[in-house]
Each structure stands twice: as C-alpha cells, then as structure tokens.
From TrEMBL:
Gene3D superfamilies: P-loop containing nucleotide triphosphate hydrolases
Top-level taxon of origin: Eukaryota
Disulfide bonds: 198-210
Gene Ontology, cellular component aspect: Golgi membrane
Organism expressing this protein natively: Alligator sinensis (Chinese alligator)
Name under which the protein is recorded: Sulfotransferase
Major location category of this protein: membrane
Binding residues for 3'-phosphoadenylyl sulfate: 9-13, 90, 98, 215-219
Amino acid sequence: QAIIIGVKKGGTRALLEFLRVHPDVRALGAEPHFFDRCYDKGLPWYRNLMPRTLEGQITMEKTPSYFVTKEAPKRIYNMSRDTKLIVVVRNPVTRAISDYTQTLSKNPTIPSFQALAFKNISTGLIDTTWSAVRIGIYAKHLDSWLQYFPLSKFLFVSGERLVSDPAGEMGRVQDFLGLKRVVTDKHFYFNETKGFPCLKKPEGSSRPRCLGKSKGRPHPKIDGQVVQRLQEFYRPFNMKFYQMTGQDFGWD
C-alpha cells in the first residue's frame, strides 16, 4: 500500500524504523530493489518477500533508488495506481556530501569531493553525471513520477525535520497513511553523541534503539567555496521543487 521511494541519504532508514513502531505497519527491513534491479523476477517474487499482514495493516518497503530510476514510476503504477509514495528529502548539498561520505567509508581511495563534483573547477562547472549531484535535482526526478501519479499520492518528508522534530514529522506521515497517531514524542529521545533522535522503547524490547553505526557519520571538511557553488547550482531546482510540491523546505 505504501513505498518509501527515496531519496538516498535523505533519512529513509530513520523513517522506516520510526514507522515500524506502529502496530498497523508491517515493513520489509531490507531494500528489495524490485522496481529497479529485480523487476524481471516478477511480482510473485516481490510479494513473497513481504511480511505477513492482517486485515487493516499496511505493508510497506523502502528502496531509495526508485526515485531516480526512469522505469520505476510506470512499473509501480502498473502494479497499483493506489500506492502511496513517500519521498524523504533533505538539503541537496548536505545530501551529496553524505552520499560521498558513505562511498568514501567503503572506498577510501576515491578522488576528493571537489574533484568529483566539478567538471571544471576554475569555471565552476558542476558535473551532473555524478550520481551524488544528480540525485539532488529533485524537481527533475519528480517530473517523471507526476506523469503517472497525481500529487495527492505523494508525501514529501523533510529529512531535517525528521531529526529536529521526529514526532511532528511522524504525525504527518501517519495522517497521510490513514493511521492513528500512535508514534508520538513519547517514543523519542535525542541522542547527543550521534546528533540523532532515537526510539525509546521499540516494540517488545526494553532497550532504547538508535540507528546503526553508519548513521550520523562525521562528514569530511569541504571547502566553503565548493559548498557555495553547489548551493547556487541547486537553488533554481529547489525553487522549482518547492513550487511543484507546495512546500518550502527552507534550504535556501
């Protein structure tokens, strides 16, 4: 009934984990990548991965790469045009740096952020073929989704607010999914060391639970001018995205 379709490094894991506290949500933990990488395995394969649900419960999954996959909107539409789509977005500059940080942690020999972000550093020409940059052009990706789904089928969640006000943002998500507001501020506490909200007591466990070690990694220091140039690059796309969604995310 619902899919978190993106975006990578936006806060999709946090959203999924916060939602799983809700008794009426059954979510697949791992990313199935059905509508981008495994589509030829067929719908029965995909359905089979899903957790068993009772009448009235919502089955969901998250695969952040769906948002930027050309074929995904049509494929999801062909499965069910009633699917609710959730997009978690955050400042595209921070998102790009976070994306780079993740790659760097897996492969320490990659070129610098600056070298990858620019086609030509002296002219300040941004390399939009680099996925870390391309993913953040949200307006462009949303365009292809709106060819299949009306805006009413989307909820755009602020990755920043998911950190600063998890209960408030979760309220919006539960309303959108037609759920009772069960996940509230009593479920969260702020973990000072990680700089992230954590769940106080996930269902059936007495221990508070925070997101894994890979979340909240310290970002490498990026030159201020590089950041500024990227902000300028994204600004028109951000404005377009605000217009399309009717939401100002305050990144500018």
